[in-house]
Amino acid sequence: MHLKPMLITLFLLPNTAFSGEPITALPEAQLTWERTAEGVAFAPLVGDRFAEPYMAMVSLPAGLISPPHKKSADMFGVMVSGTMTHVAMGDDPSAAPRLSHGAFYRIPANVPHVSSCVSDEDCVTFLYQDGKFDFLPVAE
To answer: Which pLDDT score is estimated for 5?
Structure first.
């Protein structure tokens, strides 16, 4: 008896499937990767990372350790492959959780940190940043 009101409510919610926007389906083979001089590759998904909030696939070479840096926007990631660590500057890197396939991470804006691909394979992550991309080095 208690389910009927809930079911009626669910059917009355707005249905965004009729918005007229097409579904985006982008197979991995169709990703367009842009590699930086440091070897980090970005495949844009939504937004222009240099101008606005964005989503991208990001690939870091195996063994890469970033210099200490911060971002001016919050960063959210989900690991696809490889294993990474993200360590706030001053924290013990050996105590950092090792993030592999399916792991989630969030790095708040303006937190100096070091990101590392600690696996023998490249690290691939889905990344969302709630502001434009930047990489602001900080002194150790």
So the answer is: 46
Question: From CA 133, how far away is CA 135, in angstroms rounded?
Answer: 7
| E strand map for the chain | 34-35, 41-46, 54-60, 69-70, 75-81, 84-88, 104-107, 113-117, 123-129, 136-137
CA distance 137 to 42: 19
How many other CB atoms sit within 10 Å of the CB of residue 133? 20
pTM over 0.85: no
The three-state secondary structure class of 9 is: helix
CA 55 from chain centre, in angstroms, equals 7
In which residue ranges of the chain is pLDDT below 70? 1-18
14, amino acid identity: P
